[in-house]
Amino acid sequence: MSFPETTSHFFEDLAVGMRETYLKTVLDSDVIGFAQISGDHNPIHLSEHFAAKSRFGGRIAHGLYTASLISAILGMRLPGPGAIYLSQTLKFRAPVRIGDVIAVSVEVADLIDKGARVLLACEARVDATIVLEGEATVMVPRRADLQPAILAAS
């Protein structure tokens, strides 16, 4: 699924508790594509024969594929275009399987005025199971940062 629209927030627009969720069905082509892009061709992700003998009993998506969906929210919705990723912590709690619908959420946990930094709580769920959690820190443009560019364009 893709977002219906892009939303961009300036630092001044953000408030603790703002939240955005992205739903994504994990497709076989997503897992294969992520393996091609990342170079991680671990058979736990790509070989049903190999994965069937694993503790998971079948193929699972790359953990960083799931984590990359956090980036989709940060870059496109909350805070949105202009946000710069500074750091991310991740705890992988459970496997994500092909066909699962992942609900990835980020929530503004703290606003740090110095440097226009935002701390976001991040979580991914499959049904009621938390599969990933962590925190992200991003730098967000202030309205004043873009005023000269806006004036120059008019």
Automatic annotation (TrEMBL):
Catalytic activity, EC: 4.2.1.119
Annotated MaoC-like domain residues: 24-115
Gene3D superfamilies: Hotdog Thioesterase
Coiled coil: none
UniProt keyword list: Lyase
GO terms under biological process: fatty acid biosynthetic process
InterPro entries assigned: Fatty_acid_synthase, HotDog_dom_sf, MaoC-like_dom, UPF0336/Enoyl-CoA_hydratase
Any one Gene Ontology molecular-function term assigned to this protein's record: fatty acid synthase activity
One Gene Ontology CC term in the entry: fatty acid synthase complex
CDD domains: R_hydratase (cd03449)
Broadest EC class assigned to this enzyme: lyase
A Pfam family the protein falls into: MaoC_dehydratas
Listed name of the protein: (R)-specific enoyl-CoA hydratase
Organism expressing this protein natively: Methylobrevis pamukkalensis
